[in-house]
């Protein structure tokens, strides 16, 4: 089934309390546009504690443990995680760190969402946990220093579906790397954090077809920014990201503001101008009746919906207006809580779709 995903202002208040320290963002109140971005850069720079690159492995048990899918305490690797079934392999923290590898599952290492070659492996960028994730060594190597992009005809695909191949996003036709849908928003907010935290250093970095050193306010090349804004809109902030942000703050004393306040992304950069219908995000999930004229909806899909422990409803300014615990344990009917007329997004697991309340 093809699903139409309408571009929306992702401004949700958060799925759970984000544990933002009191007053942390007060100096940003009332700001918009690039002035807001500059102020956020100052806020998340103040108090930042630089840790060594090697120490990342000590941080990952708190920031990147699988407490959300299999919940087995393994390393949560976005390049091997299968959000709807068994993972192809798992890593345990501190075990099978790379070294050498020849195949997936041999070892895990540290993936810079912004390749360290672009900033010459300089500190503190080289060890900033907000944009450095634990990932399979082989897949990390296949990603190389390619930009994140959309890959229609991959030349290589990982066991969880991450892809390498020619980019099909307008504006760039080189090789790119596409993660699975479940983590596209995570990646997008990691890169947006990077160009905010390091705005004052950006003019000295290389572009790599990703960064925009000549326009430090914008921070990213037009095509990459456009795609990341789309991913941010399509894949809202998850509980996993909120937990990771809290743990990262405990680890290095700064936060990713676009996890705490996703609405700031559109306040700074606006909306993606890419087509509102994205076949790569199509999912077999339907809502009936649609439009909704009462207070109940019936949800169906080609996957076993009982595996999803929560469902979330967002309005068109991206606010989380309803959270449903164990939504499909006793059937597929969800009762809406007095939602005003309008357009909404239902998200459960990696599935999401639009519905209208009349």
TrEMBL record:
<feature type="domain" description="Secretion system C-terminal sorting">
    <location>
        <begin position="288"/>
        <end position="354"/>
    </location>
</feature>
<dbReference type="InterPro" id="IPR007346">
    <property type="entry name" value="Endonuclease-I"/>
</dbReference>
<dbReference type="Pfam" id="PF04231">
    <property type="entry name" value="Endonuclease_1"/>
</dbReference>
<feature type="signal peptide">
    <location>
        <begin position="1"/>
        <end position="18"/>
    </location>
</feature>
<keyword id="KW-0378">Hydrolase</keyword>
<dbReference type="InterPro" id="IPR026444">
    <property type="entry name" value="Secre_tail"/>
</dbReference>
<protein>
    <submittedName>
        <fullName>Por secretion system C-terminal sorting domain-containing protein</fullName>
    </submittedName>
</protein>
<dbReference type="InterPro" id="IPR044925">
    <property type="entry name" value="His-Me_finger_sf"/>
</dbReference>
<comment type="similarity">
    <text>Belongs to the EndA/NucM nuclease family.</text>
</comment>
<dbReference type="Pfam" id="PF18962">
    <property type="entry name" value="Por_Secre_tail"/>
</dbReference>
<keyword id="KW-0540">Nuclease</keyword>
<keyword id="KW-0732">Signal</keyword>
